[in-house]
Amino acid sequence: MASSLFPFNTSLSPKPDSLLRRPTRRNSSSPFTLVCSSATSDSAPSPVIDSSLPLGVHTHQFQDDSHRHRSVAVDVGHNFSAKYVPFGSGYDSSEWYSLDDIVYRSRSGGLLDVQHNMDALKKFDGAYWRNLFDSRVGKTTWPYGSGVWSKKEWVLPEIDSSDIVSAFEGNTNLFWAERFGKQFLGMNDLWVKHCGISHTGSFKDLGMTVLVSQVNRLRKMNRPVVGVGCASTGDTSAALSAYCAAAGIPSIVFLPADKISMAQLVQPIANGAFVLSMDTDFDGCMKLIREVTAELPIYLANSLNSLRLEGQKTAAIEILQQFDWEVPDWVIIPGGNLGNIYAFYKGFEMCKELGLVDKIPRLVCAQAANANPLYLYYKSGWEEFSPLKATTTFASAIQIGDPVSIDRAVFALQNSNGIVEEATEEELMDATAQADSTGMFICPHTGVALTALIKLRNRGIIGGSDRTVVVSTAHGLKFTQSKIDYHSRAISGMECRFANPPVEVKAEFGAVMDVLKEHLSRKSPKF
Ligand SMILES: Cc1ncc(COP(=O)(O)O)c(C=O)c1O
Ligand SMILES: N[C@@H](CCOP(=O)(O)O)C(=O)O
């Protein structure tokens, strides 16, 4: 469908890896100094102390010129800070970069990670953080009304609140899947975290608010960022274009032609992004955006950029919060480029390290069988990772064969006693239809996660009373074509066991009564 709207050709020629820009190394002995002078406070009128707020947090309020009711919290006397370090290193790593640097890879070409000054955060105990985060839920206080920015001290502690670009993302529904759990799985404590019920319809909003806010800050600092770009299977591009449009920042998106849903394609188009539709798959788009962002002052918005994961990790914290800080036994997450599984691990682990909870859940990463490089790696006993050519799947947003965050995913799974599962096309579509029949309206990726749950439950690995959370990553309304195909039994080679096609009937009383009686007697023998 994309190809009918946009030509495939691009004048951009691939550049060899050797031309990718490498970050400048910081002197290990140089003290870490904040780049931004406004790093520890917001520029606003003097505070009015609100004694109902937890220790150390004072608020002041003002009306800004958009008449948006805002309030800014000032954390008094803290030393909260964060920086980039090579993935796997700690805050004290000798190689590190300021978050105001434009850098996506370590000196050796490896992944980066955002590390927080945990000693500063540990000056406050678990109860303090629980109370602080709880006190911000359900308010419109800027920016804490956002589920991401309500954890600002753990996300981007040094950003000025006026630089934040937010749609008050997060705070999504944690739905008790009572009927699905009891009817299909003999489970009474099954929950679905609906991260897709969000501004642009997917969990990507959680990361994008952080990334675009940081870009907003960099542009105000006159750093050379002319736009923000991503490769996408449809959700990252939707989030990027919306947040950039809100901030007046140009966005550029690389999409694999004919591989994303129409609803996803129209999102960046409507939000004014520069959309390039390419005759390749996601992995091809990803390679190109990495090459292009190494050459042009376009900031990279994919989860290779570890800033994104700082926002995404708040979904894990939110789950704990929604359970009154009780830890679920299992959390199941669909995986593609594999940033999100690590983001969840990081959120849970941070809560444990800072004393909000005393353990973390076991994580399950679920992949489509048609795009399963992590699953194959796991099955090999983590012996050998081979990128592959992912083939078409209804879970189109995870049709990825060469995930950039493979190392992050392995780390998360190994440190959470994790499991990887896979779902065939029939399994994921059946699971989606079953879930929908209990009142959900989930995306096929959530169907992949539910399939993993069904398999682990049937094998007795997940118990009937285990508290289990399935992460739903996108809104079902983005994927209506797959549901139409399923319910009209139009998928070749698929039985579509749970299809519920509409019945065509004459608009006559007798005809309507006949079909209703037949239907009711089938549904209820007592009728
Ligand atoms: C709807 C949806 N679910 C799951 C994923 C997988 O997330 P990740 O790439 O972080 O593994 C993606 C994107 O890749 C997505 O768009
Ligand atoms: N599903 C993603 C794929 C890219 O993932 P990212 O988290 O690295 O941006 C999308 O919607 O584009």
UniProtKB/TrEMBL annotation:
Cross-referenced PROSITE patterns: DEHYDRATASE_SER_THR (PS00165)
GO terms of biological process kind: threonine biosynthetic process
Broad enzyme group: lyase
Gene3D superfamilies recorded: 3.40.50.1100
N6-(pyridoxal phosphate)lysine modification, residue list: K204
Record keywords, A-Z: Allosteric enzyme, Amino-acid biosynthesis, Chloroplast, Lyase, Plastid, Pyridoxal phosphate, S-adenosyl-L-methionine, Threonine biosynthesis, Transit peptide
InterPro entries assigned to the protein according to its UniProt record, in alphabetical order: Cys_Synth/Cystath_Beta-Synth (IPR050214), Ser/Thr_deHydtase_PyrdxlP-BS (IPR000634), Thr_synthase-like (IPR004450), TrpB-like_PALP (IPR001926), TrpB-like_PALP_sf (IPR036052)
CDD domains cross-referenced by the UniProt entry: Thr-synth_1
Quaternary data: Homodimer.
Cross-referenced PANTHER family: CYSTATHIONINE BETA-SYNTHASE (PTHR10314)
NCBIfam families cross-referenced by the UniProt entry: thrC (TIGR00260)
Name by which UniProt lists this protein: threonine synthase
